[in-house]
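S., here's the first fold you wanted:
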Amino acid sequence: MDEVSNVKQLERSMFHLLKKAAQNAANIYVDKVGKNGVTQRQFAVLVAVNENIGISQTKLVELTSIDRSTLADLVGRLIAQGYLRRKRDKNDARRNVLKLSAAGKRALDVAEPGLSSVDRKLASLIPKEHRKSFRLALKILADERH
């Protein structure tokens, strides 16, 4: 079989490298949290709802950066699984608000140690002297609005 060489254009592409790094991080998450645990997106939604009781789905889109239609499907599945509860806002009948259920809290409690383990593993891959600047760079990229 022919040996495959690296593609220099891809090695220089920030987009490609971020995408590849994200896939590696997702693989580590699956290894640590397990295939039967909540997904990273589900975890993000559960954390955001837990820390913002009575949050609307519109605000949840802003906090998680999950697009509106994907989030609507995700919230629907989390409600069907019994992790979230949705009800009409007392002050605005046009608006639904979300709350974590007891099952959702348990799912978070189970997943949190795994996510902490993922973060430790990812941090260990970055030289210690670069971790702070790397995290800052990721935050800048994550917070950038296009």
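And the second, which I think is the more interesting of the pair:
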Amino acid sequence: MEERRKFIRLSIDVDVTWKKVTKKLKKTAKSKITKNIGGGGICLITYGKEFEVGDILQLKIMLPSKKVVRTKGKVVWINEFEVVSEKHEKRYDIGVEFLDIDDKDRELIKRFVFTTLTTAEEIGQ
């Protein structure tokens, strides 16, 4: 499979609050777990199939540096997987491409990713 990403991704959990914008313009706010983040988008992990490809989300991303990025994103892919424990549970990776993101916020994310990766390499992780 060919890698199509334009931006490096960092596998890290950051706090995200999203609001799904529906056709009726009603919004639902929830906190989610993330799988990775990069300058072009974010991957959320959800416990239910609450998204469809094409859904538009308002995102509030709280980086560990305490910086907050607010942007709009579009669900571009969904992958289902199972978590095997005492009971089998379905989870979903949700790929969200940033749509309306300020250049300074994109740079903030890119800098966070680069700095974190560089620091991890320096300490041998």
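Why I say that: The first helix runs from residue 103 to 122. Helices lie at 103-122.

Talk tomorrow,
H.
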